[in-house]
Each structure stands twice: as C-alpha cells, then as structure tokens.
Amino acid sequence: MPEASATAGTLEPWRDPQARPYVRIEGVTKRFGEFTAVDDVSLDIFRSELFALLGASGCGKTTLLRMLAGFERPTSGRILIDDQDVTAMPPYERPVNMMFQSYALFPHMSVEQNVAFGLKQDSVPKAELKARVGEALELVQLGPWARRKPHQLSGGQRQRVALARALVKRPKLLLLDEPLAALDKKLREKTQFELMNIQDEVGVTFVVVTHDQEEAMTLSTRMAVMDRGRVMQVGTPSEVYEFPSTRFTADFIGSINVFEGRVRSIDGDLVVVESPQFGGELEVASQARVAQGQTVWVAVRPEKISIAPRGEGGAKEGRRRNAADGVVQDIAYLGDTSVFRVDIGNGTLIEVTQTNLFRSIERPIDWDARVTLSWTANVGLILSE
Amino acid sequence: MSVAARKEQARSDGRVSALGKATWRALRRLPLKGRSAVVAAPYIWLGLFFLVPFIIVLKISLSQMIVARPPFTPLLTWTEGWWPQVQAYLDNYVWLLQDPLYWIAYLNSVKIALISTLGCLLIGYPMAYGIAKAPATARTLLLLMVILPFWTSFLLRVYAWIGILKQNGLINNVLMWLGIIPEPLAMLHNDFSVYVGIIYSYLPFMILPLYANLEKMDVSLLEAAADLGCKPWKAFLSVTLPLSLPGIVAGSMLVFIPAVGEFVIPELLGGPDTLMIGRVLWNEFFNNRDWPVASAVTIVLILVLVIPIVIFQRQQAKTQDVLE
Ligand SMILES: Nc1ncnc2c1ncn2[C@@H]1O[C@H](COP(=O)(O)OP(=O)(O)OP(=O)(O)O)[C@@H](O)[C@H]1O
Ligand SMILES: [Mg+2]
C-alpha cells in the first residue's frame, strides 16, 4: 500500500525505512578521564521532530546535547547533521542553537541585546533584526522587560530570555536543555504549546532535555530514556509508556507494579508466571521470548487494575490468577483520580489508580477496607531485564 | 623626690585615670559594636597613615623656607594674648604656577605613566588570560612566577636593567654578535629605558587583578557566543573584554598611580632630560632643602592623582552595579 507508507513517512518518519534522518548520532561515547558520561549512544532524529531526552540527573543528557552543539568532542563515534559529518565542526559554524541549562545570558547586555546577539552575527538588516527580536520577546512575554539587564530579572524570566535567544535565529536544529524547568505551571503549558506551534510552523527540529516525564509525554514526538550514559529505550510516548522494554524504563516513566517470578508455562501467547512476591500465579498475554523456568518480572500499571470491595459473606475463593485480596493502607485523593495502596500480605504493596467517576464525599472504599484487586491478562507486561 | 612632689604625682595619676574612665564611658556610649569596629578599622588606618601625614604636608606647603630646624616657618604662632596667629603663605603654589619646570614635569610624568600603563595592559592582558585559561595545576606555578621577582629587592632589579641595556650590555652584545646591528643601540638613560623599567616593575600589578577577574569568568558565556555564530576573536571582543573591564581599571590604577610619582626608575635608568615629578620632588627636598616647595609639589601631585581616581571609582561602581 503506497498511501499508507507515505503517511508513515511524513507523520512518523522513524517507521519508514527509506526516510533519511536529519540528525544521526552514531555510536557516540564521551569519557571524562575514567568516567564514561555518554556510553555508545546511537540515535536517529528526523526533520521536524520534537525529540525528548529523558533521564535521571547525571545520566548524560547535557553531555549528549553539548556534543550536538559542538562544545564537546565525542571520545569516539560520529555525529551527522543533514548528512554532513559535524563531529569536528566548531560550534559557531553549526546550524544549531542551544538553550543552556544555566541560561548563560550575557550579564553586560540588556534582554534585547542578548536576544539580538545571534542575529547580529549573521548581519541581519536593522529593521528585520528589530522586528524579529520584538517577535521573540513577545513570544516569551518579555516585551516590557526588554531594557532590563539579566541580573534584574527573576529566574523564570531569565529562562525565557535564554529561550528567546535560542529561538530567534530559527536554526535547523534547536537544542533545549531543561527549557521550562523554572516556569510556573500556567506559563509552562503556554510555552509548551508555543514550542509545538513553532515546530509546526517553522519546521525546526527540536531536541529537548527534560527530567519531567509529563513534559516529555506532552511535548515530544519521540523520546529516548537514558540511564547512566546509555539509551535504554527510544519510542513514542505511548510506546514507552505502554511497552517499556526494561524495568528501568517501566519504573522511570509513570508508576508501575512489578512482581518478580519464574515462568511456569507458556501456552501460545499466554505466559504463566509463578511469583512468590505476588503470592500466586500471574498470567500475561505476551509475545516476549522467554523460556520456561526463566526469571522474569511482571509489570502492571496502577490504572489498569480494578479494585472492588470484597463480598462480605463470600467464601474465600483461594487465589485466582491476576487477582489478590488485600487491605487498603493508604489513599491519595488527587481530584480526578484516587491512588490506593493495597497490602496483599507478605509485605507486598500494590498501587491502584481509579478515576473518580462520581462526585461523592463518602468514599466507597475507605482506609482499612478489605478489597479485591484484579486485572486481565492483556494489560500486564513481561520484562526480562 | 620630695613627699610633696610624690603627692602631686599621685594626684595627677588619679586625675589621668579618672579622665581615662570618663573617656572610656563616653566611648562605650557610642554605638561601637563589633560590626562598626570592623567598619571603622580601615578608616582609622587611613586616618593615621594617610590623613594625618597629608595634613602635616599641607601645613608645611603653606609655610616659608627658613634656615633653621625644621627648615620652615611655623603655621601657628602664639604672640601676646590668647589667640594663636595663623601665618599661611600661598607663595609656594604661585611659584609652582610660575616656573614652567613643574608643569612640564607633571605633564611628562603623566605621559610616561599613561604610556607605561598601556604597555603593561598590552603585555599583561594576554599573560593574565593565558594563566586564567591554563590547567589548574600549571596556574599556581605561573602565578608564582609572576610574583617571584618581588622576592628580590626592587632596587637590585632596576639596577640589573642597566647591565642589560647599556652600551656594551647584554642586548647590544648579543645583537652585534648576531650581526643584526653594526653599532650598539642607545637604550639606556633615555625615555625608552624608563618605559622598560616601569613596565617591567609594575607588570605584576596589572596581571594580578586581571587574572582575578578573568579566572572567575563563566566559560559558558563564550560557549553561548560561539553557539550564536560568533567566532572566537569576536566573542573575545564582545564578551570577554567588556566583562573584564573592572579588572582592567583596577590594574591600570595600580600601575598608573605609583608610576606618576616614580623616582627610583627615572633616577637610575632615565637620562638627564627625563623630567619626572618624583625627581623634582627629590631635588627640592634634599638638594635645595626647600621643604615648603617640596610639600606643595606633593599636594598638587595628590590632586592630580585623586581626581582621576574618583572618576574611575565612580565608573567602576557603575559597572560593578551592572555585573552583580
Ligand atoms: N567536564 C566534565 N568533567 C568531568 N565529568 C563531567 C563533566 N561534565 C559532565 N560530567 C559528568 O558526566 C555526567 C553526566 O553529566 P550531564 O551534565 O550530562 O548530566 P545530565 O543528565 O544533564 O544531568 P542533569 O539532569 O542533572 O542536568 C555527570 O556524572 C557529570 O558529573
Ligand atoms: Mg543537564
């Protein structure tokens, strides 16, 4: 079907084997002395993507970004931008702009001059320069502060100056290091929206570093989850959320219940796992290639588990698969949802999220309530590492 | 000592201690807490070692020379009656104005100091920059080398330059031996040797404040400039240089001010026509024994220096304001 592949090519170029990536990171490693900050990373980023780098503090996100911008030379590996090898190209020649995590605003220049600095290097005519600086400041809502010096601004305002300074040159590739971390929720959402707009309009390719997973989920077309210098998984937000490939990504993105166990039987798609931690058997519909007797982890997202009060008179019906009886230990009311922590015995706590469908002050399930948890075979995941 | 005298002594001792107590109480009443004491310390220092000598010199500059000990007329005299009489003369200042020698000496000193400051800046800036950019281990060693000359006497080091610059000195001998020049260059006892001496002697005073400034400069600013398409040389001009202005000002002051009043270097390395105000001062004081004129020369010199300092200080306070 030619049509289908054309759609895949424009909207999801990473699914199209013919598509040429705009940025190619090929086996890049960066060592600082003995310490390996970035470890054999390979990534393909396509034109007009908004690619998020996600990971805990110190996992090498900034270092990877700095290599893209040209401030660090990879110890080994290559970086190509638009099919050109830029590994050894100095930063001032790269078609790349970066927004620094520390902002790096010029303290002796006003907000306006900071934003205009990049355009001046390209000898943009005065009238156009003024217009573009004005536009950029408008975008980040800093018009009234144009004449101020950076030290007269709040942290969030400085961050917005840094953002405007990186945006104003409309580079082919824009690198943003924690661009929205210091903004309040309203402004952050607005700026996120604006970033997506810019990406749509100008067709800039973004690489955004963040450790806010919610931000990564809303902003990005795809994301890479990093851990200790290595890329653990690359995929669209829903792929990474629904099909994490390792326990690390499963745990890092959202919350998840994980039970260690041993594969007891494999029946077509249905894998049965015996888990002492769960205190019974779990079944998962999975294509994961596992062998009988292998140690695996079964992972279930909290919102995929249903919770119900245990029938009062109902006789205890032994342990069914994917079901457990327990006592509510803790309830967190979050407005739209409630999070329950249920003790199912032998020290195992299971987290369950429920949407608050009805408005009620009286809780149908209260602290210390005896409840039954259950889920279907196709919401679980088998993770082998 | 007679009994009466001893009694008298005891009584006066008592009086002194009573006075001491009163003063102490008065001091206690002042809000002289720890903090104000710390703030007061530099003022007390300046008062004792700058203001008091300044007032004494000012006083002498208003008197007239006499052959006596001390060789000037007293400012205050007690004649008949209770009121002291002030005898102040402005003759010395008028004399300074009338004799062009002094004006030429002042202007020449300022000129030599300015050129030397510029020389120190041109040589010192790259050195300070290099040290600031050197790896941390090399930095300490390089800084040590900058201040190493201070471990030998200043006078000796200036003397050493005579051996280097003179007719059959080190440089001339080497150049002649290499066949670059047919006959020795006249490098000693002229303005050139004075510049060499001043720049050499004051270079560390330029390097150290510049280094302190450049060392704490944020490298990510240069990265940001490069990222925005700015070549290294331009980034230096538009980022590093303006941000190091406070260091440049501090270093220039430290070189310029002592260079204006420099005496030893023009005396040892300068020619007979190298007119600097330090030498004039020396002549007035030691050769002519004219303390009042020497004092007037000093007062004018201080004014010549203080005015630019005040201007610079204001400027610096302003830039500091911007950078904080
Ligand atoms: N110049 C350097 N010399 C030595 N080690 C470095 C250097 N730069 C970074 N590192 C180390 O490399 C690791 C990765 O640093 P990096 O700044 O890339 O982390 P990050 O993922 O951006 O973290 P954060 O989210 O906290 O910003 C850290 O452990 C850091 O200590
Ligand atoms: Mg970082």
From TrEMBL, chain A:
<comment type="function">
    <text>Part of the ABC transporter complex PotABCD involved in spermidine/putrescine import. Responsible for energy coupling to the transport system.</text>
</comment>
<dbReference type="Pfam" id="PF08402">
    <property type="entry name" value="TOBE_2"/>
</dbReference>
<dbReference type="InterPro" id="IPR005893">
    <property type="entry name" value="PotA-like"/>
</dbReference>
<dbReference type="GO" id="GO:0015417">
    <property type="term" value="F:ABC-type polyamine transporter activity"/>
</dbReference>
<keyword id="KW-0813">Transport</keyword>
<dbReference type="GO" id="GO:0005524">
    <property type="term" value="F:ATP binding"/>
</dbReference>
<comment type="similarity">
    <text>Belongs to the ABC transporter superfamily. Spermidine/putrescine importer (TC 3.A.1.11.1) family.</text>
</comment>
<dbReference type="InterPro" id="IPR003593">
    <property type="entry name" value="AAA+_ATPase"/>
</dbReference>
<dbReference type="InterPro" id="IPR027417">
    <property type="entry name" value="P-loop_NTPase"/>
</dbReference>
<keyword id="KW-1278">Translocase</keyword>
<keyword id="KW-1003">Cell membrane</keyword>
<dbReference type="InterPro" id="IPR017871">
    <property type="entry name" value="ABC_transporter-like_CS"/>
</dbReference>
<dbReference type="InterPro" id="IPR050093">
    <property type="entry name" value="ABC_SmlMolc_Importer"/>
</dbReference>
<dbReference type="InterPro" id="IPR003439">
    <property type="entry name" value="ABC_transporter-like_ATP-bd"/>
</dbReference>
<dbReference type="GO" id="GO:0043190">
    <property type="term" value="C:ATP-binding cassette (ABC) transporter complex"/>
</dbReference>
<feature type="domain" description="ABC transporter">
    <location>
        <begin position="23"/>
        <end position="253"/>
    </location>
</feature>
<protein>
    <recommendedName>
        <fullName>Spermidine/putrescine import ATP-binding protein PotA</fullName>
        <ecNumber>7.6.2.11</ecNumber>
    </recommendedName>
</protein>
<keyword id="KW-0472">Membrane</keyword>
<dbReference type="GO" id="GO:0016887">
    <property type="term" value="F:ATP hydrolysis activity"/>
</dbReference>
<dbReference type="GO" id="GO:0015847">
    <property type="term" value="P:putrescine transport"/>
</dbReference>
<keyword id="KW-0547">Nucleotide-binding</keyword>
<dbReference type="Pfam" id="PF00005">
    <property type="entry name" value="ABC_tran"/>
</dbReference>
TrEMBL record, chain B:
<keyword id="KW-0472">Membrane</keyword>
<feature type="transmembrane region" description="Helical">
    <location>
        <begin position="37"/>
        <end position="62"/>
    </location>
</feature>
<keyword id="KW-0813">Transport</keyword>
<protein>
    <submittedName>
        <fullName>ABC transporter permease subunit</fullName>
    </submittedName>
</protein>
<dbReference type="GO" id="GO:0005886">
    <property type="term" value="C:plasma membrane"/>
</dbReference>
<feature type="transmembrane region" description="Helical">
    <location>
        <begin position="141"/>
        <end position="162"/>
    </location>
</feature>
<feature type="transmembrane region" description="Helical">
    <location>
        <begin position="192"/>
        <end position="214"/>
    </location>
</feature>
<feature type="transmembrane region" description="Helical">
    <location>
        <begin position="103"/>
        <end position="129"/>
    </location>
</feature>
<feature type="domain" description="ABC transmembrane type-1">
    <location>
        <begin position="106"/>
        <end position="312"/>
    </location>
</feature>
<keyword id="KW-1133">Transmembrane helix</keyword>
<dbReference type="InterPro" id="IPR000515">
    <property type="entry name" value="MetI-like"/>
</dbReference>
<dbReference type="GO" id="GO:0055085">
    <property type="term" value="P:transmembrane transport"/>
</dbReference>
<feature type="transmembrane region" description="Helical">
    <location>
        <begin position="235"/>
        <end position="260"/>
    </location>
</feature>
<keyword id="KW-0812">Transmembrane</keyword>
<keyword id="KW-1003">Cell membrane</keyword>
<dbReference type="Pfam" id="PF00528">
    <property type="entry name" value="BPD_transp_1"/>
</dbReference>
<feature type="transmembrane region" description="Helical">
    <location>
        <begin position="291"/>
        <end position="312"/>
    </location>
</feature>
<dbReference type="InterPro" id="IPR035906">
    <property type="entry name" value="MetI-like_sf"/>
</dbReference>
<comment type="similarity">
    <text>Belongs to the binding-protein-dependent transport system permease family. CysTW subfamily.</text>
</comment>
